[in-house]
Amino acid sequence: MTHYGDVRALQNVSFRVEEGQVVSIIGSNGSGKSTTLNTISGVLRCSSGSILFNEEKIDQAFPHQIVDAGIVQVPEGRRLFPYMTVYENLKLGSFNSRGRKTLKESIQEVFGYFPILQERRNQIAGTLSGGEQQMLAIGRGLMAKPKLLMLDEPSLGLAPLVVEQVFETIKRINLQKITILLVEQDVFQALALANWAYVLENGSIMMEGGAEDLQNNPQVKEAYIGV
Protein backbone atom coordinates (compact mmCIF):
# COMPACT_ATOMS: atom_id res chain seq x y z
CA MET A 1 0.00 0.00 0.00
CA THR A 2 1.25 3.48 -0.89
CA HIS A 3 -0.12 6.86 0.19
CA TYR A 4 0.24 10.46 -0.95
CA GLY A 5 -0.26 12.12 2.41
CA ASP A 6 -3.66 10.90 3.59
CA VAL A 7 -4.69 9.73 0.11
CA ARG A 8 -4.31 6.02 -0.55
CA ALA A 9 -2.82 5.62 -4.02
CA LEU A 10 -2.13 1.86 -4.10
CA GLN A 11 -3.81 -0.99 -2.25
CA ASN A 12 -3.65 -4.75 -2.63
CA VAL A 13 -1.11 -4.48 -5.43
CA SER A 14 0.73 -7.77 -5.75
CA PHE A 15 2.62 -8.92 -8.82
CA ARG A 16 5.75 -10.71 -9.98
CA VAL A 17 8.29 -9.91 -12.67
CA GLU A 18 10.10 -13.07 -13.69
CA GLU A 19 13.74 -12.78 -14.70
CA GLY A 20 14.21 -12.32 -18.44
CA GLN A 21 10.59 -11.40 -19.15
CA VAL A 22 8.84 -8.27 -20.32
CA VAL A 23 5.95 -7.49 -17.97
CA SER A 24 3.54 -4.68 -18.78
CA ILE A 25 1.28 -2.74 -16.44
CA ILE A 26 -1.66 -1.17 -18.26
CA GLY A 27 -4.48 1.02 -17.04
CA SER A 28 -6.15 4.37 -17.44
CA ASN A 29 -4.72 7.74 -16.37
CA GLY A 30 -4.57 8.00 -12.59
CA SER A 31 -4.80 4.26 -12.04
CA GLY A 32 -1.51 4.13 -10.13
CA LYS A 33 0.91 2.89 -12.77
CA SER A 34 3.63 5.51 -12.22
CA THR A 35 3.09 5.32 -8.46
CA THR A 36 3.85 1.61 -8.64
CA LEU A 37 7.19 2.21 -10.36
CA ASN A 38 8.05 5.08 -8.01
CA THR A 39 7.36 2.83 -5.03
CA ILE A 40 9.60 0.07 -6.36
CA SER A 41 12.43 2.53 -7.06
CA GLY A 42 12.22 4.07 -3.57
CA VAL A 43 11.02 7.50 -4.68
CA LEU A 44 7.88 6.74 -2.66
CA ARG A 45 7.68 4.54 0.43
CA CYS A 46 5.07 1.82 0.70
CA SER A 47 3.07 2.29 3.91
CA SER A 48 2.46 -1.44 4.26
CA GLY A 49 3.52 -4.62 2.51
CA SER A 50 6.96 -5.46 1.14
CA ILE A 51 8.96 -5.40 -2.08
CA LEU A 52 11.38 -8.22 -2.85
CA PHE A 53 14.12 -8.24 -5.46
CA ASN A 54 16.12 -11.43 -5.87
CA GLU A 55 14.58 -12.58 -2.56
CA GLU A 56 15.91 -9.50 -0.73
CA LYS A 57 13.60 -6.89 0.82
CA ILE A 58 14.16 -3.45 -0.71
CA ASP A 59 11.10 -1.52 0.49
CA GLN A 60 13.14 0.33 3.13
CA ALA A 61 16.18 0.91 0.91
CA PHE A 62 17.14 4.33 -0.44
CA PRO A 63 16.83 4.97 -4.19
CA HIS A 64 20.60 4.84 -4.79
CA GLN A 65 20.79 1.50 -3.01
CA ILE A 66 18.00 0.16 -5.20
CA VAL A 67 19.87 1.31 -8.31
CA ASP A 68 23.02 -0.38 -7.02
CA ALA A 69 21.01 -3.59 -6.56
CA GLY A 70 20.16 -3.48 -10.27
CA ILE A 71 16.76 -1.76 -10.57
CA VAL A 72 16.78 1.31 -12.82
CA GLN A 73 13.79 3.49 -13.69
CA VAL A 74 13.46 5.57 -16.86
CA PRO A 75 10.88 8.11 -15.67
CA GLU A 76 7.90 9.53 -17.48
CA GLY A 77 8.85 12.77 -19.21
CA ARG A 78 12.51 11.65 -19.65
CA ARG A 79 13.92 13.99 -16.96
CA LEU A 80 17.14 14.68 -18.85
CA PHE A 81 19.68 17.33 -17.93
CA PRO A 82 18.69 19.64 -20.79
CA TYR A 83 21.74 21.95 -20.74
CA MET A 84 24.24 19.11 -20.77
CA THR A 85 25.38 17.17 -23.82
CA VAL A 86 24.21 13.73 -24.86
CA TYR A 87 27.53 12.26 -23.73
CA GLU A 88 27.37 14.01 -20.36
CA ASN A 89 23.84 12.72 -19.74
CA LEU A 90 24.93 9.19 -20.55
CA LYS A 91 28.00 9.46 -18.36
CA LEU A 92 25.87 10.58 -15.41
CA GLY A 93 23.81 7.43 -15.82
CA SER A 94 26.87 5.35 -14.95
CA PHE A 95 27.56 7.02 -11.58
CA ASN A 96 26.61 4.00 -9.50
CA SER A 97 28.69 1.11 -8.25
CA ARG A 98 27.63 -1.15 -11.14
CA GLY A 99 27.89 1.37 -13.96
CA ARG A 100 31.24 2.96 -13.10
CA LYS A 101 33.10 -0.26 -13.84
CA THR A 102 31.95 -0.46 -17.47
CA LEU A 103 31.61 3.16 -18.63
CA LYS A 104 33.34 2.85 -22.02
CA GLU A 105 31.75 -0.50 -22.81
CA SER A 106 28.29 0.75 -21.86
CA ILE A 107 28.62 3.89 -23.98
CA GLN A 108 29.32 1.74 -27.02
CA GLU A 109 26.39 -0.54 -26.19
CA VAL A 110 24.05 2.45 -26.02
CA PHE A 111 25.37 3.80 -29.32
CA GLY A 112 24.75 0.34 -30.78
CA TYR A 113 21.09 0.55 -29.78
CA PHE A 114 20.75 4.21 -30.76
CA PRO A 115 23.26 5.19 -33.50
CA ILE A 116 21.75 8.68 -33.71
CA LEU A 117 23.02 9.36 -30.18
CA GLN A 118 26.58 8.76 -31.34
CA GLU A 119 26.06 11.34 -34.07
CA ARG A 120 24.60 13.74 -31.49
CA ARG A 121 27.03 12.94 -28.65
CA ASN A 122 28.21 16.56 -28.34
CA GLN A 123 24.77 18.11 -28.85
CA ILE A 124 22.90 19.75 -25.96
CA ALA A 125 20.21 17.31 -24.81
CA GLY A 126 17.46 19.92 -24.70
CA THR A 127 17.85 20.56 -28.43
CA LEU A 128 17.15 16.96 -29.43
CA SER A 129 13.85 15.88 -30.93
CA GLY A 130 11.33 14.18 -28.66
CA GLY A 131 12.23 10.77 -30.01
CA GLU A 132 15.94 11.37 -29.59
CA GLN A 133 15.37 12.55 -26.02
CA GLN A 134 13.48 9.34 -25.25
CA MET A 135 16.33 7.31 -26.72
CA LEU A 136 18.76 9.24 -24.55
CA ALA A 137 16.64 8.64 -21.44
CA ILE A 138 16.61 4.90 -22.10
CA GLY A 139 20.32 4.97 -22.90
CA ARG A 140 21.07 6.78 -19.65
CA GLY A 141 19.16 4.06 -17.79
CA LEU A 142 21.19 1.36 -19.50
CA MET A 143 24.42 3.02 -18.40
CA ALA A 144 23.65 1.90 -14.83
CA LYS A 145 23.81 -1.76 -15.96
CA PRO A 146 20.30 -2.71 -14.83
CA LYS A 147 19.08 -6.20 -14.11
CA LEU A 148 15.53 -4.81 -14.14
CA LEU A 149 14.78 -1.81 -16.36
CA MET A 150 11.53 0.00 -15.54
CA LEU A 151 10.14 2.16 -18.33
CA ASP A 152 7.41 4.70 -17.59
CA GLU A 153 5.41 5.74 -20.68
CA PRO A 154 8.26 5.54 -23.24
CA SER A 155 5.90 6.35 -26.14
CA LEU A 156 4.50 9.53 -24.56
CA GLY A 157 4.34 12.38 -27.08
CA LEU A 158 6.14 10.51 -29.85
CA ALA A 159 5.16 10.13 -33.50
CA PRO A 160 3.94 6.62 -34.48
CA LEU A 161 7.05 5.80 -36.49
CA VAL A 162 9.30 6.76 -33.57
CA VAL A 163 7.15 4.70 -31.20
CA GLU A 164 7.77 1.66 -33.40
CA GLN A 165 11.52 2.30 -33.29
CA VAL A 166 11.54 2.70 -29.51
CA PHE A 167 9.57 -0.50 -28.91
CA GLU A 168 11.74 -2.44 -31.32
CA THR A 169 14.77 -1.30 -29.33
CA ILE A 170 13.12 -2.31 -26.03
CA LYS A 171 12.66 -5.77 -27.53
CA ARG A 172 16.37 -5.89 -28.46
CA ILE A 173 17.33 -4.80 -24.94
CA ASN A 174 15.26 -7.62 -23.47
CA LEU A 175 17.01 -10.11 -25.75
CA GLN A 176 20.23 -9.15 -23.95
CA LYS A 177 18.70 -10.71 -20.81
CA ILE A 178 17.63 -7.42 -19.23
CA THR A 179 14.25 -7.85 -17.55
CA ILE A 180 11.72 -5.15 -18.44
CA LEU A 181 8.83 -3.73 -16.40
CA LEU A 182 6.85 -1.49 -18.73
CA VAL A 183 4.18 1.05 -17.88
CA GLU A 184 2.52 2.19 -21.07
CA GLN A 185 -0.76 3.74 -22.20
CA ASP A 186 -0.38 2.39 -25.72
CA VAL A 187 -1.98 -0.89 -24.69
CA PHE A 188 -1.60 -2.52 -28.11
CA GLN A 189 2.18 -1.96 -28.08
CA ALA A 190 2.50 -2.88 -24.40
CA LEU A 191 0.75 -6.22 -24.84
CA ALA A 192 2.45 -7.00 -28.15
CA LEU A 193 5.83 -6.71 -26.43
CA ALA A 194 5.05 -8.39 -23.10
CA ASN A 195 5.09 -11.96 -21.87
CA TRP A 196 2.73 -11.19 -18.98
CA ALA A 197 0.60 -8.19 -18.09
CA TYR A 198 -1.38 -6.69 -15.24
CA VAL A 199 -4.38 -4.35 -15.45
CA LEU A 200 -4.28 -1.66 -12.75
CA GLU A 201 -7.37 0.38 -11.91
CA ASN A 202 -7.97 2.75 -8.99
CA GLY A 203 -4.73 1.64 -7.36
CA SER A 204 -5.49 -2.09 -7.42
CA ILE A 205 -4.68 -5.01 -9.71
CA MET A 206 -7.96 -5.90 -11.42
CA MET A 207 -6.77 -8.52 -13.89
CA GLU A 208 -3.64 -10.37 -14.99
CA GLY A 209 -2.66 -12.90 -17.59
CA GLY A 210 -0.55 -13.78 -20.54
CA ALA A 211 -0.22 -10.76 -22.82
CA GLU A 212 -1.77 -12.57 -25.78
CA ASP A 213 -4.72 -13.67 -23.67
CA LEU A 214 -5.32 -10.10 -22.50
CA GLN A 215 -5.08 -8.84 -26.08
CA ASN A 216 -8.02 -11.10 -26.90
CA ASN A 217 -9.96 -10.39 -23.71
CA PRO A 218 -13.24 -8.60 -24.64
CA GLN A 219 -13.16 -6.40 -21.53
CA VAL A 220 -9.58 -5.27 -22.18
CA LYS A 221 -10.26 -4.73 -25.88
CA GLU A 222 -13.29 -2.58 -25.17
CA ALA A 223 -11.73 -0.55 -22.36
CA TYR A 224 -8.18 -0.02 -23.59
CA ILE A 225 -7.74 -0.99 -27.23
CA GLY A 226 -10.90 0.61 -28.55
CA VAL A 227 -12.29 -2.52 -30.21
Structural class: alpha/beta
Please tally the β strands and state the result.
10
- For this structure, what is the CATH class? Alpha Beta
**Which strand-content bin applies to the residues?**
15-25%
User: Radius of gyration, rounded?
Assistant: 17 Å
Strand order in space, largest sheet: 6-7-8-3-9-10
CATH superfamily: P-loop containing nucleotide triphosphate hydrolases
Task: Give the integer mean of the pLDDT values.
Answer: 90
3D architecture notes:
This protein is of the alpha/beta class and 227 residues long. The protein has one domain (2-82, 146-225): 3-Layer(aba) Sandwich (Rossmann fold). 39% of the residues lie in helices and 19% in strands. The protein has ten helices and ten strands. The chain has helices at 33-40, 63-69, 86-93, 103-113, 115-119, 130-142, 160-175, 187-193, 211-215, 218-225, and strands at residues 2-4, 7-10, 22-26, 52-53, 56-57, 71-74, 148-152, 179-183, 196-201, 204-210. Strands 6-7-8-3-9-10 form a six-stranded mixed beta sheet, with helices on both faces. The protein has a two-stranded antiparallel ribbon with strand order 1-2. A two-stranded antiparallel ribbon has the order 4-5. Strand 4 (52-53) and strand 5 form a beta hairpin. The longest helix is centred in the C-terminal third of the chain and has 16 residues, at 160-175. The model has no long low-confidence stretch (mean pLDDT 90).
Brief digest:
By secondary structure, the protein is an alpha/beta fold. The chain is built from ten helices and ten strands. A hairpin with a 2-residue loop joins strand 1 and strand 2.
